[in-house]
Amino acid sequence: MEMDKINIFWFRRDLRLEDNAGLYHALKSGLKVMPVFIFDTEILDQLQDKSDKRVDYIQQALANLQRDLIDLKSGLTVYHGKPLDIFKSLTEEFEIDTVFCNRDYEPQAIKRDQQVKDFLHKKDIAFSDCKDQVIFEKNEILKSDKSPYTVFTPYSKIWKEALQSIETFAPDFNNLVHISNPKDIPSLEDIGFKKTEIMFTKPSLDLKIIKTYGQYRDFPSLDHTSHLGVALRFGTISVRECVQFALKHNETWLNELIWREFFMQILFHFPYVVTHCFKKKYENIHWRNNEEEFKAWCEGKTGYPIVDAGMRELNTTGFMHNRVRMITASFLTKHLLIDWRWGEAYFAQKLLDYDLSANNGNWQWVAGTGCDATPYFRIFNPEEQTKKFDKELKYIKKWLPNYDQPKPLVDHRLARERALEAYKKALD
Fold first, then answer.
1. 18 assigned binding-site residue
2. Are residues 227 and 92 both part of a single domain?
3. What confidence tens digit (pLDDT) does each residue in 251-260 have?
4. 185 annotated ligand-binding residue
5. What are the backbone dihedrals phi and psi of residue 338, each rounded to the nearest 5 degrees, phi first?
6. 218 in the same domain as 126
7. d(Cα 252, Cα 212) in Å, to the nearest integer?
8. What is the CATH number of the domain that holds 386?
9. Band of the pLDDT at 3, cuts 50, 70, 90?
10. Phi, then psi, of 126 in degrees rounded to 5
11. Are 57 and 198 within 8 A, CB to CB?
12. N or C of the chain: less Cβ packing under 10 Å?
C-alpha cells in the first residue's frame, strides 16, 4: 500500500506552537504535517561544557512542546545527528512533499539550510522557509540606494515607518500527523549532556517591568529587565507578540527589539564580522592579549568590584545585566587591551541568551570596532559607573558577599591613556 504524502515542519529557533509562521504555512498546505526537531551534533560537538544550560533549556522546551502536541493527538519526533544525514533517512522512511521551517540568518545556518535544500531538490522535495524570528529581514529595510543601514538611528526610524501592521499566525492544528504513542524526548544523557539547575518556564510579558523599563533598566540591583533574551533566542516567545506589546507600552523596550534586528541584518549583509572588525582599519590595533589578565577577568578577579560582580553573575547564572555587560566588555577591551574576540567567545560559552549577531554586534560596539560603535575614546570608568548605577553597592554585595578585593590589575587613568594611544596608533 502506498504511503500518504506528508509535509515536515522542522523546529529550530522557534520552539512554540503559538504564532509560528513556518508551522502555520505547513499546516495550511493541505497535507498532514509531521513536526521534527534535530539535536544538531555539528553544533553540540563544539560545546566543551557538557553541563551547558542552553542545551538543558532546549531539552525542557522540547518536553513542553511535546506535552502540547500530545494534547493535540500528535507528537514531536526528535533526532540526534547531522541535519543532512537525518533528512537522508527521513526521505527513505516517508513520502515527503515539502519541508517547512523558519529562516535563520547566521552564516553557518544559511550554509546548513542550503545543503539540506540542495539534497531535497534532487529528491523532488520542496524546501519552504519562512520569516519568523524578525519583523523585517534581509532587504526589507534598505537605504534609498538599496544598500543596508550601518547606523542604528536611521535604521530604527525607517523600521518604525515601515511598520504598518503586524500579522500574527494562528495555525489550524487539525492537519498535524496523528501519533498515538509518540516517543519520549531524548534525555540530556542520551545526547551526551548533563542536567543543570535551570528550570524552563513558559515565557510571558510582564507589564510592570516593560512599562517602567526605560526608567529602571540601567540599575543592576533592581533586576528590572524583561529576561526574555533566551526566549527570543530559542523562539519560545514570538517576536511579533513582543513588538505588539512594546508598541502599546514602552518605546525604550521597542528600541531594544529593533537593535536585535539591526544586528541580525548586519550579520546577514556583512558575515565577515563573525571573525573580523566591521571597521577593517581596527584590525591594526596591537592588542596586549595577556593570558593571565584574561583569566582574572573571566574569574571575576580584576580588583574592580563592578566588573568582578558581573563576571561572577555570568559564571553562576548564565546571565549578566546589560549595563554590566557594557562595563565588563569595556574593561576587557580598553583597560586590559585584550581583543574583543576573546571576550565575545567567552560570553558565547556562558550566556544563556547567546545570540551570535547580538553578542558580536555589542562586543564590537563597546570595542569601537563595529558598525554603529561607541567612539573608541569613550572608556567606561568602572568606579564612576558604580557610583551612577550601583551607588549603594547592592548588586556588588549580592555577587561578592565575602569579597577579598585583589589588587586592581590596572590603574584606570594609566589604562585609559594606554588604550587611547593604542587605538590612535592603529588608526593613524
1. no
2. no
3. 999 999 999 9
4. no
5. -110, 135
6. no
7. 9
8. 1.10.579.10
9. low
10. -80, 155
11. yes
12. N
